[in-house]
Amino acid sequence: MADASSPAEASAQAAAPAYPLAGVTVLDLSHIYAGPYATFLMAMAGAEVIKIEPPGTGEHLRVRAGIGGAALPFAMLNGNKKSLSLDLKSDRGRELLLRMARGADVLVENFAPGVTERLGLGPAELRAVNPRLIYASSTGYGRSGPYRDYPAMDITVQAMSGIMSITGFPDSPPVKSGPALCDFFAGIHLYAGIATALYERERTGKGRLVEVSMQEAVYASLSSNLALYHGNGGKAPARTGNRHGGLAESPYNVYPAKDGYIAIICNNNRHFHALLKAMDREGLRDDPRFADLKSRVGHMEEIDRLVGDWTRERTKGELAALFLANRVPHAPVRGLDEVVNDPHMHARGSLQWIDHPQFGRIVVQNSPIRFEDVPPMPLVPSSRLGEQNEAVLVDRFGLDPDEVEALRRDGVI
Amino acid sequence: MADASSPAEASAQAAAPAYPLAGVTVLDLSHIYAGPYATFLMAMAGAEVIKIEPPGTGEHLRVRAGIGGAALPFAMLNGNKKSLSLDLKSDRGRELLLRMARGADVLVENFAPGVTERLGLGPAELRAVNPRLIYASSTGYGRSGPYRDYPAMDITVQAMSGIMSITGFPDSPPVKSGPALCDFFAGIHLYAGIATALYERERTGKGRLVEVSMQEAVYASLSSNLALYHGNGGKAPARTGNRHGGLAESPYNVYPAKDGYIAIICNNNRHFHALLKAMDREGLRDDPRFADLKSRVGHMEEIDRLVGDWTRERTKGELAALFLANRVPHAPVRGLDEVVNDPHMHARGSLQWIDHPQFGRIVVQNSPIRFEDVPPMPLVPSSRLGEQNEAVLVDRFGLDPDEVEALRRDGVI
Predict the structure, then answer these.
(1) Domains and CATH numbers, chain A
(2) What are residue A68's phi and psi, to 5 degrees?
(3) Which chain B residue has the Cα nearest residue A255?
(4) Does the distance separating the beta carbons of B191 and A169 come in below 8 Å?
(5) ipTM reported for the complex surpasses 0.90
(6) Which residues, other chains included, contact B317 with Cβ-Cβ below 8 Å and sequence gap of 6+?
(7) Each residue of B30-64: pLDDT tens digit?
């Protein structure tokens, strides 16, 4: 960070909120979701993130945003970053990246394994010029092992990792999980690894190569189904729809309402009795079919029919009000329209409407990692490709303006 | 860390691998999935994690493991931790926790909002005794805002966050995503926040309260569907099954095989022509219905029929061999049996069979965050409740053995 040159400036600096990653500089070569999410979180924690993309078109997600399909995700994941266009396949582009790496703390990439090595910009080359640099790499299956070069997109990793086989109704084919969870699990693990390496570097003075594979990053989330698999081996049902993954609780399902669906979960007698009270059916408390969890599980079909026949006559709002009053664990199944307008997330500042210079009025997210005593980082809209070329190269890395002009003329930036 | 008391010991210490979080002590009050995953990752990065649970039964997941339902997840998430039983509702238990907090770096909890405050162990009390302590909290909806006290389990947050509404087939009800992704997204964001705060503390000397909400932690993973929502508003389909979330690519689906299912994704002509070659149908390259992505999307039903009729006559293995040879992006839909025995993950050391003293032969995961130059942390099986009571209280925090005996007698530990 720059030294304060006057007492007034020093005082202004002292008054500004101090974000945890202030002073950290990140060179971001990443694209689409996994890498950009990691660097977005870094930017929102106070790091200076320089997003480096091919001149002309920019990264894949920017291309898709340009033809209208992915404007919102591009803007969501790339706010608060500086944009630099740079042709890494040219000698001068490569040299410039190495020069910047000398003054940076972290480099992030999510190319297929081997790509940066072929560019002459692998971990060995980069850490040779800056042993303090943290090199962070996200791939589908890791930088080693027999599947290293398997094609890795969110949907292929969902298939390979078991996610698809455990999602859906028992009498329907396997179905992908709607969220791009392989990409985003990889991205947040990558951020976590970088932050860990930054901590370590404060103590050792040395950088690290940090690596995350999408396949490994989602494995732990299978826990509930792995429990059932472990307990029942080959006899475990692959998919249980909206019922408990272990078919060990009831009522536990998504039930129809007049205007949609509502999830209800009763883990114990207290919850079940609260539900019966809400349904005005407390007489059933003593019915031997429903007396305890075990007998309820044995009469799951009857329970689901009983509850579903009652819920379908009411709206989600009516049901939620009854359940809140009676303390029945529940949640309405909300559509994206309700989610992006969620009063709670807007009240907390985790979602915010902004007027984006390229994409118009959109809703964007702040970081889900909150630090007390600093306000959420003010959101800066994502930049146009190369919008900060001068600011980065001249002001930040000391290039001569004529040199920058020559780079532009020759298509290097 | 202890000082080396002889040159031989100093040399042995220098030779041991230095893990990034060596020397960090974590008090772990968390349960089930989110918190324990965060602290598991800390343990695997070298931290000393002391898992603190109620005497008698232990945390919820240990109870479930004891009756057979969740042995594997409990073991997966709680290896490499020390177990201390401690009654936080008693005055002496509370005092002991405050005493330990003086010598710790991080405290992790995922109780409902307000629980630790009611115990007299909220962030204010803890940081009063140790301003360097990082207090890390994971909740369903955050520590503030109108939904703060809403019931939060993985399935209710899946319903509220929009995940359920975008998962499943268009002609079926919404369905939950199989993985417990709300719990695990919260857990890994929590770890990330803690690592960030540890880095910051090296620079400022001060701890932070770090907070993560499950609802906020999954929001970004909705990106693809938010793109479609943004582009088409109310007219966007909520669910597209295994087709592209934006219905903007074809072939892109999960197709039947003789012995299961296989995902195929063609993002461009190169992929599609490779698929036609694998199918020995290159004559179709010039068919105007399939000439480019746009026309293929316009004939999605025909494409899916054409591809599906061909795949269903072959096994997953036959298809995968053909697709690998022709470079067609694809992946077999694998069941949990294939996943836990995955030769790639075992080759990389990310999965490993261990003989667990309580649970027998099980497969457990190493950390998905890999640091070059240190071998993966050797896996230590999860402990029995209170197994390290003496080691923690006497050796680590300096209590008198008689004092520990009195605490045990009085049911405090």
Answers:
(1) 18-220+346-409 (3.40.50.10540), 252-333 (3.30.1540.10)
(2) 100, -10
(3) B173
(4) no
(5) yes
(6) B332
(7) 999 999 999 999 999 999 999 999 999 999 999 88
